[in-house]
Amino acid sequence: MGYYKNWDDKKLYTTFVELGEEIETLHDEYFELLQRLLKDDDVFMFTDSIDYGNLKDTHRELLYKLNFKREMSFETSKRKLEKSFTPRIESILSSSLEEIKKVGDEED
After folding, report:
1. Dihedral sign of CA atoms 8, 13, 16, 21 in order
2. Is the confidence at residue 63, as pLDDT, over 90?
3. Are 56 and 44 in contact (CB under 8 A)?
4. Which of 8, 15, 44, 93 would you label with 74, given CA atoms 20 to 30 Å apart?
5. Which one, of 47, 55, 2, lies nearest residue 29 by Cα?
6. Burial classification of residue 33, based on how many CB atoms lie within 10 Å of its CB (0-12 exposed, 13-18 middle, 19 or more buried)
7. Which long-range contacts (CB under 8 A, 24 or more apart) does 17-25 make?
8. How high is the pLDDT of residue 29?
9. Is 68 within 8 Å of 26 (Cβ atoms)?
10. How far is the C-alpha of 102 from the C-alpha of 21, rounded, in Å?
């Protein structure tokens, strides 16, 4: 599922938004199926019914997309943190290396 890690920020954000819309639609579909099954006691007893199968498939797809969206959210957060902290960390490392060099030169 990590193929999105090579995407640029714009594509990642666009896909993230589209995925949210798809998840919303799947939620609605899932709850409609669930309500239909709960209204008809006879259908609910037969796990091989069409509605039950659709409910399982919808639930599985919903979970897949929710997990994918969560992973994309983590990737976005990771990118933002790297973008924020990388310059500061490089600056700290650079100044530390300069100090080590000075100490090494003084000892010689």
Report:
1. negative
2. yes
3. no
4. 93
5. 55
6. buried
7. 19/65, 19/68, 19/69, 19/72, 20/69, 22/65, 23/62, 23/65, 23/66, 23/69
8. 93
9. no
10. 57
CA distance 103 to 67: 51
pLDDT of residue 19: 93
Q: Who contacts 69 (Cβ-Cβ below 8 Å, separation ≥6)?
A: 16, 19, 20, 23
Structure confidence by residue, pLDDT tens digits, 29-56 = 999 888 887 776 655 556 667 777 888 8
**Can you state the angle between helices 9-39 and 50-107, rounded to 10 degrees?**
150
Rounded-to-integer distance, Cα 73 and Cα 91, Å = 28
For the chain, the residue count is 108
